[in-house]
User: Fold this.
Amino acid sequence: MPVAMSSRLTVVLLALMLGIQPVTSDLYLPTLPILTQEFGASMAQIHMTLGALLLAFGVSQLFWGPLSDMWGRRPVLLLGLAAYVVAGIGCVLAPSIDALIIWRTLKGAAMGSVVVCARAIVRDLYTPEVGARVMSKALTGLGAIACMSAPLGAFLTQVYSWHAALGAVAVFGAICLLAIAWKYQESAPNTNSAVPPFQELAMTWWHILKHPTFIAFATLTLGSYGGLFVFLVTSSFVFIGVVGLSKLEYGLVMFSMSFIYMLGTFLCRWLLVRYGVARSVAMGGVLSLTGGILLNVSAWMEWHSVIALVGPFYIFILGHGIHQPCGQSGSVGPFPQAAGAASALGGFLMMLVAFLMGLWLGYQSDGAVHGMAWGIGFWSVVTSLTAWTLVQRIGRNHA
Assistant:
């Protein structure tokens, strides 16, 4: 039987584990323009430093998830975090863009263990309804970490160098490793050291993949994260390269975006108590679509100001704060004995979408603003339609 941890400790540890993802991406974003210049890298190579990380992050979860179901969350977390710190040091010392891509790929593979275990731990300890509220609290912590990440990355890059910014990422990984080693108590309901044959794993994945509840909530999460990823990968080029902000001003823009996301997680908890999951998600769909439409209007009218471009995304990211807690907890809800595998499959699909979007953005010829607007607009449609159809059908079946 799992050993109980206090609810407050669980939320803090979950926030640290989930927060490793925005630290790895958001703190890194302000370094992209200077990395482009220093390494003489092409736009496609720069996008690959994010895309390869996310693809490795997604694929590795397919292995980390089942391993955490068999061996327990704790050994997988310790192994993955140790590898993450090593890869982080490698990034700091990278002599070329190719070396940086390799180390970022290894970092993404290690990061997969941390995030997949975090989502599985929520299902280990809580029912799906309670898990959505706990996940919302943890994602509020993630939002706080994200708020600090981009400004800190911008400060370290501008005052020192990109090496300092990437060094801060490695330090955060070391903090997470110490916290897990010191405070985390195993939560997996059953562990077994025997590794099942691949055919058994494939059958488990197929059972999860075809489950209607997983389809609904995983698609919701995919759409919402797809829009966020488009913003993250294009924002530094839009606001520094087109709008003309300094790195520190860009960091403040990212801080404000993360703050709005935090407000979205608070709004999520308020809505869940009053309206339940299905209606809360439907309301979030209105925010997602409204933000996507307004951003495309700004791009089409060539309103290249901070307010015209950030304002619509504030609306989208407010909906993101509703969709992610509900989507991530809902997609693993039907699988208490295979929460790691379900978490892994959802994470893999998210990162596959992000990788493909990174490739698409790397070859857009109409400019960063239009690429950002079109990408976010597309995913806002996917998110809202999923919220209003698939999730509502699941809600009616449960009722």
